[in-house]
Amino acid sequence: MNTNTNLLQRVIATDISSSPLALRVPVGIIFAAHGAQKLFGAFGGNGLEGTGQWMASIGLNPGYLMALLSGSAEFFGGLALIVGLLTRPAAAVLAVTMLVAIFSVHIDKGLFMSNNGYEYALALLAASVSLLFSGAGRLSLDAALTGRSGVCSTGPSRQPV
After folding, report:
1. Distance between CA atoms of 120 and 149, rounded to whole angstroms?
2. Nearest-CA neighbor of 60 among 7, 14, 104?
3. Tens digit of pLDDT for each residue in 68-77?
4. Which of the four pLDDT bands, split at 50, 70 and 90, describes residue 149?
5. Residue 150: pLDDT band by 50, 70, 90 thresholds?
6. Residue among 73, 74, 77, 54 nearest 64 (CA)
7. N or C: which end of the chain has fewer CB within 10 A?
8. 135, exposed or middle or buried, with CB in 10 Å at 0-12, 13-18, 19+?
9. How far apart are CA 137 and CA 12, in angstroms?
């Protein structure tokens, strides 16, 4: 097996549990929707121009580029989670995106959402890190590509990668 194939196999490796599906799909929908707000102005969002202006106003410069990067991470990362393709890299990018959101926007407002605090971003960070550790699970494109989408005949979902 050549080095590139081995690396790809390791990146998309996943255990064969169905549990990540329960996390992957709703979290993916949330991220994709927030990314669509930033990129396209969907769901009442401000689009790239408005989001970029806001990001510049809080010191994330250049604002347009930061809006493009965060919107793309959320939109495309969310889509990747939904279908379970390249779940670990998508989850890593989304985790970093949430860390930036927490420390650049929410940390000084405390924990609670009622004060624009970081609890929501923290929950999305935790979900992203969980998917980074677990991978996409059985019902995913990652599992199909690695041939791990079948039911484990030796017991619960822990099989060596």
Report:
1. 32
2. 104
3. 999 999 999 9
4. low
5. low
6. 54
7. N
8. buried
9. 10
pLDDT score of 1: 53
Please tell me whether the peptide bond between 62 and the residue prior to it is cis, using omega within 30 degrees of 0: yes
Higher pLDDT, 36 or 159: 36
Q: What is the 3-state secondary structure (H, E, C) of 116-142?
A: CCCHHHHHHHHHHHHHHHHCCCCCCHH
Report DSSP letters for 18-41, one per residue: SHHHHHHHHHHHHHHHHHHHHHH-
Residue, of 157 and 93, whose pLDDT is higher? 93
What is the number of other CB atoms lying within 10 angstroms of the CB of residue 132?
A: 17
- The predicted-structure confidence for 135-148, as pLDDT tens digits, reads as follows 999 999 999 998 87
Name the nearest CA neighbour of 76 among 65, 63, 91.
91
Taking the C-alpha atoms of residue 20 and residue 26, their distance in angstroms, rounded to an integer, is 11
